[in-house]
Fold each of these.
Amino acid sequence: MRRPLWSAGRAAVPCLAVLLVWGVIPAAKPGAASDLRLEGNFVQGGLVIGRAAPGSRIRLNGRPIKQRADGRFLIGFGRDAKPKAALELLHKDGTAVMRTLIIAARKYKIQRITGLAPKMVSPPASVLARIRAEGKAIRTARLADTARPLFDSGFMWPARGPISGVYGSQRILNGKPRRPHYGVDIAAPKGTPVRATAAGIVRIAEADMYYTGGTVLIDHGYGLNSVYSHLAKVAVTPGMAVAKGQVIGTVGATGRVTGAHLDWRVNLFLTRLDPALLVPPMRQSHR
């Protein structure tokens, strides 16, 4: 199930995923479906890169998917994605193609965290306006639609250290259930360099957000973005172009945390993906 989309040493070449069922509606022309390629992880939290004849109209479960000038398009499956997804294509010549995608389900861990200050579990009314404003800024940044495929650089781990939190896990804070965790936590020491997981453009660089403390969001193009939270130091500014592996800050314990670590997240617009599916196991990563 855990199949990196970019292989170590061959950063821009996706690995072919296997969890896919092909179901094709009869087409007006023979071979009409042969120009559709799908590569990635067909699993909850997975990212898939598609390619079809330029100018095609694409829908996933009835929702329009934007195709790029190079014929590519990205689709992502959230934490609770249903087991089947309907992908529809309508080519410029009127040929219609449908494929049924089989999405593998996952089992998620339950994490219990105690010792948090009460105000960090249930924020006081005095900070609600701040929380809403910061949430709106992050949402806006996640909706950025840069036309350049900067993610072609491939992905790498942004830091090294024990994995203390995984994608999809349910956290119970001071005995109160909270929303699932949508990132990977790396328990590196304070001051450890944090690097851009792929090339991109910095959209958010804040030293002190209420929940996430020092926070950086990088736009990798086509709606794909990554977020780095709880940083002790932020070393970039909004609008800055960064290369894969460039230092963007350091690990810290800012925001709502109980210890130093990096919370690393990846999104396709508003769909939250599992970052661990984009990289090889940490022992194989290169920096």
Amino acid sequence: MKAQETRICRFRLTEVVVPARANAVNHPDLDRPLHKLAVAGQAGWSMQFDALPKLLIEMELDNGVIGFGECYRGHSWATVEAVAKRLLGSTLAAIPLQQVPIARCREHDGLELAVWDAYAKTHDLRLCDLLGGPLRDRVKVGAWTGHRKVEEIPAMAAEFARQGFDCWKFKCDLEDDVVGWCQAVKSGAPGMSVILDPNERWEQSHEAARRLRALAEVGNLLCLEDPLPRWMLAEYRALRHLGLGAVALHVSLPYVEHGQRVHDAILALQQGAVDAFNFNGGMAEFAQLAAIAQAANLPCWHGSEVDLGILEAMYVHQAAAAATCTWPSDIFGRLVREHDLLKASLAIEAPYVRLPEGPGLGVELDAAAIQHYQTQLKIIE
């Protein structure tokens, strides 16, 4: 059968819930949710991320090739099933990879990935080859955590440094002693840098400026990500002009209900509001975002939602093909969750993760692990 004649003939959709490892997210006494999206009528920050289900997609072609996809947490079954039914019977060659016929929704990137992975496998290419080929065979990554107590940080920093990590990202809010955290990191791992991510929760520019002044004296802050509400680009610019540390904006296209779009990166540049970007997006749109960062000669890194192995493999391919994606990416799911559902995990050789080998994503699924964490299964054919 010619590659251009292959058709999509079946979808296997497996819902799973994979918990986080004990003590991998927050200190037990500070177990505050990190998930900022509303869920089924519940406000953001009301549910921990690992309580939400994930959906694995296996899209089968009539030549036997199976394309893998993974949806972000909190998928809509109705949306996934509707898209799968529309794609059934389509020839792979008739689907433009740059504009897969799926409207912008939170499920878009997982379904798009299944199409790209199947296309790459059919043509015996790596996923990154469809992006123009890799610029590096390994991608910088960092350690990660949620809310912590100062006294536990030096030993944790020393252990991360022993493993090879040289950057540690913290989620934080106004209640956290971020200056004490950075001092503790410096004590436990003198050469380690820190990314602080308040997820917009420092609220006012004076709160951010006061902390930046103290953090500049500590001297190990790589950047401050999303300190204020995203619409406050003038305040972002003012923070940058203090000259106390780099300011980054997270453009996360899966955050559909927050209205995030590719043009947010352009607006931030027009306002002179950022020194770097954290990007999340599917195959086609991440490439657009990465090109914007390259044109602006600004560093970026790949964000995540503390995902499983399929999405994280996609992130490695995307980052490897992006010219300025050189800051530590948020590719650490297996270090946080109990399992990544892959037969062989991504090869993290801190502070890097290696680009997977083989066609498509270059990963295989662990059927036994998937069955263990499975909560629901649907077949569409």
Amino acid sequence: MKYGTKALIMFSGGQDSATCLAWAIDKYDYIETVGFNYDQRHLVEMECRKTVLRKVRSSFPEWNKKIFDDHIVDLNSLGKISNTSLTRNMEITLNEEGLPSTFVPGRNLIFMNFAAAIAYRRGINTLIGGMCESDFSGYPDCRKETLDAQMKAISLGLDKEFILETPLMHMSKSEAWNLAEELGGKKLIDIIVEDSHSCYKGHRTTRYEWGYGCNACPACDLRSKGWLNYAS
């Protein structure tokens, strides 16, 4: 694929989006970032994403030359209509279909629409996201089929071809750790471990080898198992 020069990354400040940021910097000359505040239970990620961006900028001067504007989209209404354990202080369980109660219906689809609206205004036609269907919690809006359909609708609706890059789509979490090391070495691994946030409960009091979290929610489970396989 021939890459353009600009890309907008949906950047939450978690392990996956931090790895995707490094991947994007390796492929593109001009990067903008966007974060979404949807009244999530782990709202601490909104602060962590700023820290990760700052640390990446200061630790990698050459990367810093490619990172430009950061955007924040207020989607509190999504949190208000989503009765999930990612937007409510409730126990994380599995429903009858086997989906964890952390699934926020339509979240990724909504994120992609808002990201495309920003990209359209900024003269960018490539979006980057950390969605993955090989090592994930089973969310249907992380599947490549879903994302391809959404991007087709976005391109038709904006009358402009948009591309979605998902570099982690077919990677396990341990492979994502390996990719981060390949791209940024120990410096990037240290930033992801110390400053990124994935825990659905928003816990940042206990530090494990793989970072901060509750060590019990689906996000922590995936991250810790991936780290174990990567570090062994």
Amino acid sequence: MNESIILGIESSCDDTSAAIIVGNKILSNIAANQEIHNLYGGVVPELASRAHQQNIIPVVKQCISKANIQQNDIAAIGFTRGPGLLGSLLVGTSFAKSLAMSLNVPLIEVNHLQAHILAHFIEDANPVPPKFPFLCLTVSGGHTMIVLVKDYFEMQVIGKTMDDAAGEAFDKIGKILGLDYPAGPIIDRLAKEGNENAFKFNKPRLENYDYSFSGIKTSVLYFIQKELKKNPDFIKENMNDLCASVQKSIVEILMEKLQKAAADLGIHEVAIAGGVSANSRLRAAMTENQEKVGWQIYIPKFEYTTDNAAMIAMVAKLKFERGEFADLSVSATARYDLVSELEQGKG
């Protein structure tokens, strides 16, 4: 191999993941999920950090083995510095620092949000990568934002959520409906059997390109409470229609702002990223806009939508080429805002 081999480590929430990249090609991408959180209806930070401690060594070992390389072949180690759960981030950061020191290779810090966007440049993420400038709707359980991407490390957040993230709204509404956590994929699945026009829910009215999802959560809650008084079996009898209607409303909120931003800025290159970009209704809406208004759309492979180390390795590779390394004093940070980071001119 002529190009450098880079290890990426991701531990921002409840998935322990490691990946090996050479050039823009992923040789292995391994993740260990933490299903224990399903019992609690959400991620429990202390349990997450403990599970990361148990998983990180076997995950990295499996990653190196699957890539068919030796540990000493690794030229640099990239890791998620933030944002995320501090306890989880500390496990990944500490491991990356220790391994980099033992191998005497550079350490590269990665912003988790930036990684979701730049995952589009992984060799097999799309048939072709996006062209600059492009808009990226980055939407997950913790974040919802529209980012104008001018270059790999020149980005501008032009819209963001003022309260809940879209993925958070799916999970909270799922809880109202009595669904397991995480509710987003369950709602997506049940919605396929439902009528998305069965029920209407309130949509926020915000200026510019900002989002709000607390209103739809409240609208669903009040609607359900009212209907349950009339029919205690309302949720059970209408579950598929409820899921389809909720999903349609959330996707419409997401798309209306994205359409406005694309039209206002005259941009036809449009991408989605983050866990909610796996949603089938959102993907269909992107395809509809490709046909109606001539967007060139970029929808990443499913494995690159959720939290994964492949996207961390991709950013690490780009930073490695630029010689942007961290020293061993670097520390994890729960709040690692994409806006302030880019305004400060950091990578």
